[in-house]
């Protein structure tokens, strides 16, 4: 069973871009913009929210659980395993234990991370040094908050975090959640 991530229970701003055409595929991936996570991931998100609040920030969430059907759509749009997990292997998103997000300040403005969400380029990699001091600091803030809350990062995407050992969670389809997204 997945948990819906939405205010007021979760103090986050939702901007679920895969329910819009504003994503790397150029078309909506999801029929319904629903943000879901496995209970283990939802608990760690609550911890991360509290830690972000402590530095005067909140989260803007771009994606969380991604049904297997959606993973295939992304793979067809951008079949690069450095960024999109081959659906035959199973993504941490498809297990409900990954989240794509950024930090926003008290005015709701995202912190400058040097690239936008879903910029599938080397500049999006953790550890990229071709960034301003502010952008490096902002990425370090996000990484610090998420790591302190028990999340692992994905080396090629500054916005992607997942629970450790995601393979221990089952892959899920849209049917498994009652057809809520696709």
TrEMBL record:
InterPro entries: A_A_dipeptidase, Zn_M74/Hedgehog-like. The keyword Aminoacyl-tRNA synthetase does not apply. The keyword Nucleotide-binding does not apply. The lineage of its organism: Bacteria, Pseudomonadati, Pseudomonadota, Alphaproteobacteria, Rhodospirillales. It is an enzyme of class 3 (hydrolase). It catalyses: D-alanyl-D-alanine + H2O = 2 D-alanine. The record marks 66 as: Transition state stabilizer. PANTHER family: D-ALANYL-D-ALANINE DIPEPTIDASE. Pfam families: Peptidase_M15. GO terms for biological process: cell wall organization; proteolysis. Binds 1 zinc ion per subunit. Belongs to the peptidase M15D family. The active site is at residue 157. It comes from Azospirillum griseum. Zn(2+) binds at residues 93, 100, 160. Keywords: Cell wall biogenesis/degradation, Dipeptidase, Hydrolase, Metal-binding, Metalloprotease, Protease, Zinc. Its EC number is 3.4.13.22. This is D-alanyl-D-alanine dipeptidase. One of its GO terms (molecular function) is D-Ala-D-Ala dipeptidase activity. Transmembrane segments: none annotated. CDD domains: D-Ala-D-Ala_dipeptidase_Aad. Catalyzes hydrolysis of the D-alanyl-D-alanine dipeptide.
